Amino acid sequence: MRKLLAFSGVDPERLLLKWVSSAEGPRFAQVVTEFTEKIRILGPSPLADSRTAKQPTAGMASEAS
Amino acid sequence: MIEQVREHVRKLLTDGQISAFLGLRNQDGNIAPHIFEKPEDLDEGFTLGDVEGRPPARYPLAKLLMTIVSADPDKKFGILVRGCDERALYELVRWNQLPGAAYRFVKVGFACPQELADEHECRKPFPDECVAGEKAQPVMNASVKEIDAKALPERLEYWSRVFDRCVKCYGCRDICPVCFCNVCTLEENALIRTGDLPPENPIFHLTRAAHMAGRCIDCNLCTEVCPAEIPLRTLYKKVAEIVQEDFGYVTGEPGDAKSPLNFLGPDPGHTSAHD
Fold it and tell me: Are B152 and B109 within one domain?
């Protein structure tokens, strides 16, 4: 999945898969905290702008021109 | 070439080795899949898909066979196969979609010409056994390397641009010879917002790409039918490359090996009403 993300231009560091047992509460908290911190450093996703700023017809209009 | 194939099929039908043959028929210039039941039917419109001046018409015959075989459990069918159709058959058998495969169908293979292999960047433009045609040279994968050569932001820019052309016709899924699920993630609102146009990108296309892992047999039908000319196949080729790197699995090969993504399921040959 990370390799596919990289191929489509999304930083693979933005995806994390970890197995945490339901009995490992503290570990879960630690994993999430660390990853949240990492994402904060990476900054907003380039996809976030495109999704919020773009009008539904933007893609079509640019295609026609 | 067509005469060799036609006579081969005629013999199979006459000898009673098959009850019917799933091939292509040209009716008034339109080519569509057809079930030939009698030897004399072969004299009317039997075609390999070629029409002068146009690329040959292709259909996911393997997928159609799936439906036909389950609807008519007592019959044995012949099926017209190119290299890609055969890969699809191998994969469908592996995913238990063609129960009793070995004694339910007979492949009638022919090799594609080099031009077609080049056009579709085909890795194996001929089935294992050919009744007719010269085996063309396989064509190596170049489209993935083009993307790999780009920097991360350029890749995103490229894919965002092509994905945004999507009109969400589901053509890629519907034509796909190995897309057989009864329930499709692409239509689940909880996972991908429905009703958006273009669809939620890149989620929509990456979801389909992820589902092609260990399945896509590289036939290029999706890219051929896409009205928005999205190079879907390039994406799925990359997925295939990843599956090969990480699991050592190549789709569409004969043998009993299970696909790495359905290794938990029942063994090939098993059928379930709830699949």
Answer: no
